[in-house]
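The authors assume throughout that readers already know how a fold can be written as discrete tokens. The format is easy to grasp once an entry is in front of the reader. For illustration, here is how one protein appears when written out as sequence plus structure tokens:
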Amino acid sequence: MTSILLISGSLRAGSTNAAVLDTARTVAPDGVTATLSTDLGGLPHFNPDDDVEPLDPAVVHLRASIGAADAVLFSTPEYAGALPGSFKNLLDWCIGGGEIYEKPVAWINASAGGSEAVNAYDSLRKVLGYAGTRIVEAACAHIPIQRDAVGADGLIGDPAIREQIRSVLTVLRDATG
């Protein structure tokens, strides 16, 4: 089994990015266990002086989750032309521990707006490069999601979109081998 950790860059209730990843969890192909991270909102503000033992329990959990995963899949909105601050904070905590180093990573850009969140994903690419990850280009996808595509259960029901999400997971799974 390949373990893929799913990390949303949004804290917003009803986030389409969270819906994409929650849907990914439910449509994971054979051989994939997809787990949704819930660490984003509980992390302390990053300060290099605090990146020493004993670490905050939320940081320990985040790093253990990343370390246990074979790959990581992200989905994030863009706020004010950049990554959301809370998501950048999570990424900053990922660098010091080394758990994400050389790990296969990818993202699904769910932006349906005109800007397509290009600044956020350019920044994500840069940060993941500094972290030494292995970006799996073939698994990075722009799958625009309109809010009305998300059902009351928080999942995306459209079969074509669900298949695109499953395909991303398949490519990321295959890149771990």
The chain has a mean pLDDT of 96.
